[in-house]
Design a protein that fits this description.
This protein is of the alpha/beta class and 245 residues long. Helix content is 46%, strand content 20%. The chain is globular and about 40 Å long.
Amino acid sequence: MENKAEKVKPYSKEIDKKQQVEKMFDNIASKYDFLNHLLSMGIDRSWRKNLIELLSETHPGKILDVATGTGDLAIQTSKALPDAKITGLDISQGMLDIGERKILKNNLSGKIEMVNGDSEAMQFEADSFDAVTVAFGVRNFENLNKGLKEMNRVLRSGGKVFILEFSRPRSKVFGAVFNFYFKYVLPLIGKITSKDPKAYKYLFESVQAFPAYEDFLQILQEAGFKSNIYKIQTLGICSIYIGEK
């Protein structure tokens, strides 16, 4: 299935998306957490909590958090699953640096390792992890199918992937409110508070183009996952997708 989000880029149509995404997150790293919580009115924490509750049911020992950013999901997961060993992977060193400081602050250095790397060409051996998590990261992949196949490769047999990603509300009324907020309000706040306002324009455009619900389940299947399901969050602002290797 075609993924139109791959063609949506933060800055230029000519430069590779991967390079632009790395630059974008390096640019906004210092404001990323503040704006995430502000723009979602704090609801993003509950979305991650819901993902972690589903993850906990599988009792994973080794977890890979792809596109970990500043480590919000990895840290929240480690607190909920203190016996788990978590590896956070991200292409942006600027985001990882902030994540490292947060891990130290939360006394989780022995439980979370932050690694700089490409989600579409991971340095890990096959069958290395019991679970893979991603929060708001797959939308930014240059090649979605390649990234998902890499997640499948590093998962052990029977392991599961848990993906939290924006979707488009199916309600016409709420969808109109959602689109107005994402298209006009969010970029305005981003312009005022961030040195890279294009990042928040890109957010709206990439969400609009990203395949959601049944379309994304089909892409998961094409990447080798089975028993794929999704769980809608907050009227469809985002969804949690689960697939099994």
